[in-house]
Amino acid sequence: MNATKLIRLGGLAAIVAGVLRTAGSFWPSSQPGVGLELLYLVIDLFILFGILGVYGFQCEQSGRWGFVGFLLAVSGTAFITGPDGELGGVNVYDVGALVLGIGLCFLAIGSWRAKKLPRWIPALWVFSTAIGIAGASVESLGSLFVVSGVAFGAAFVGAGATVWSQAASTAAGSKSVDERYAR
After folding, report:
1. Helix, strand or coil for residue 87?
2. For residue 38, what are the CA distances in angstroms to 32, 42, 137, 161?
3. Rounded distance between C-alpha atoms, residue 78 and residue 44, angstroms
4. Nearest Cα residue to 102 out of 119, 118, 79, 82
5. What pLDDT, on a 0 to 100 scale, did the predictor assign at position 31?
6. Using the 8-state DSSP alphabet, how is residue 178 labeled?
7. Residue 103 domain flag
8. Is residue 178 part of a domain?
């Protein structure tokens, strides 16, 4: 399988992650259980593969900000993918969600620089992070979880659709990995 196909599959994963995350935003948090945990495990795995596809699509143009954002977003996703719990008195999910959000903000900066995604996508990543932090910090603003989840999901659907539809045409005009690094 070539890099373009992998990147396009990452785009498809981002679409699935976005749709599922949007739907998961409306699941009553008062009804936690195995079903909700499984849903979020699947969402988190698709987020991970989606981030890989989005970054692969624009890595050459996104610069250091994009790279740092990619590393943080992947690390944050790794933290939240496992079972929720505490490590040394620190809630691993909360830390992971924060690292993922910060990573998406840095990836947004790289995306603005790369100019390969529509501007509203990185704007929604930043917005969803800010709203998510506000909702998590102020108990009376807990309903912002839905707004944040919908914004996050819409951004991933948009990014995935862009990657899916444009990765093949972008790759056609660029050099292969072998050509770029041949001496």
Report:
1. strand
2. 11, 6, 25, 25
3. 8
4. 79
5. 67
6. H
7. yes
8. no
Domain count for the chain = 1
DSSP 4-21: HHHHHHHHHHHHHHHHHH
Residue at token pair 């699509």: 57
pLDDT of residue 30: 65
- 19's CB contacts (< 8 A; 6+ apart) are 153, 157
Q: Which residues of the chain are modeled with pLDDT < 50? A: 172-173, 175-183
146 near 26, Cβ under 8 Å? Answer: yes
Q: Enumerate the H helices of the chain as residue ranges.
A: 3-24, 34-81, 92-114, 120-137, 144-172, 177-181
Contact (Cβ atoms closer than 8 angstroms) between residue 136 and residue 27: no
**pLDDT given for residue 177 in this prediction:** 41
Could you list the residue range(s) of the whole structural domain that residue 80 is in?
3-172
| Amino acid 176: pLDDT | 44
Whether 177 is in a domain gets the answer: no
Q: What Å distances lie between residue 58 and 23, 118, 167, 182, CA to CA?
A: 27, 12, 9, 21
Answer whether residue 21 is part of any domain: yes
Closest of 96, 85, 3, 80 to residue 42, by C-alpha: 80
Cα 180 to Cα 183: distance, rounded to the nearest angstrom: 9
